[in-house]
Write a structure and sequence with these properties.
- By secondary structure, the protein is of the alpha+beta class.
- About 20% of the residues lie in helices and about 40% in strands.
Length: about 90
């Protein structure tokens, strides 16, 4: 399994907007995508930092990082192999 991790930093008051976007656009948009296995959103409400993680069955099915709009708030987008699962 592979994880695509996107880290963003917004002002804390925009955290709820980020949560709504992740639910509506990311999770809903990927539900029918080939190889999609799930998603998590981690947030720090004090700093406004968010980490969106989408899970994929193979590296080939991970969406290209250029497919998602990158804003000035985006600090990094990386792909990791998941090597330990519960």
């Amino acid at each position: 399994m592979f994880a695509r991790v996107r880290i963003t930093e917004e002002v804390p008051v925009k955290v709820d907007e980020g949560i709504q976007y992740f639910q509506d656009a990311v999770v809903s948009g990927y539900k029918t995508a080939r190889g999609f296995k799930g998603a998590y959103l981690l947030i720090n409400r004090q700093s406004g930092k968010m980490m969106g993680i989408t899970l994929w069955d193979t590296e080939a099915n991970v969406p290209a990082t250029t497919a998602t709009p990158v804003t000035s708030a985006t600090k990094s987008i990386e792909v990791y192999e998941v090597v330990v699962e519960p």
